[in-house]
Amino acid sequence: MPLIYVGGTPGVGKTTVAKEVARKLGIKYVNLAELAVSEGLVTGYDAERKAHIIDEEAVKRRLRKLASEESAVVDTHVATAVPSELVDVAVVLRLDPRELKKRLEARDYPPAKVMENVQAEILDSCLIEAVETFGVERTFEIDTTGKSTKQVVEEILRVVKERKGSKPGSVNWLEKLGDDAYRLLRDGEAQP
Length: 192
Ligand code: ADP
Ligand code: MG
Prior knowledge:
The protein is an alpha/beta fold. About 45% of the residues lie in helices and about 20% in strands. It is built from nine helices and seven strands; from the N terminus they run βαβαββαββαααβααα. The protein has helices spanning about 15-25, 30-40, 55-65, 95-105, 110-120, 125-135, 150-160, 175, 180-185; strands at about 5, 30, 40-45, 50-55, 70-75, 85-95, 140-145. A hairpin with a 4-residue loop joins strand 3 (about 40-45) and strand 4 (about 50-55). Helix 1 (about 15-25) crosses helix 7 (about 150-160). The longest helix is centred in the last third of the chain and has 14 residues, at about 150-160. The mean pLDDT is about 95.
């Protein structure tokens, strides 16, 4: 049974949206980090990032077993932990880095972790990893900036059902933000 990958930088809205997509499709929702931790599919703990390090090979085996029984929406920013051959479509959510920064600060992320994720979003890290893992044909990206959960869910359902949507390369924060992008990368602030 196929998997639907929902990826993107932490804070872009994966969990909010992926749960609703799974509900609408009547299939299972899998939060990869929670699955890995609850089943001990981890290799260690990164104290600096306050995050578990997932055992990608063990997680892939677990997802293959799951997919042998049912379809699922998989929510994770780690594309390389998802068995590529099982993925029907991969959707990477994007969010204006200035908005992402506000959301991560509201979540009380330490400043270094906010910066790391804002930089990753500006530089397309999750998109690149998804394209490398799943290939450009199956990968789509959705700019969620200013959109409601409902709108984003509908866009994902369209991608799943019709294979239509924005392709990798349609979001370009460097172009949209101009000098603000460089200020964010350099200083973590968009204002001069
Ligand atoms: P992720 O799983 O990618 O880390 P979450 O789904 O936890 O992201 O969302 C991060 C924060 O952003 C939450 O506070 C959530 O309520 C909020 N959020 C998610 N989607 C939207 C949206 N479309 N518009 C505004 N806020 C959103
Ligand atoms: Mg989440």
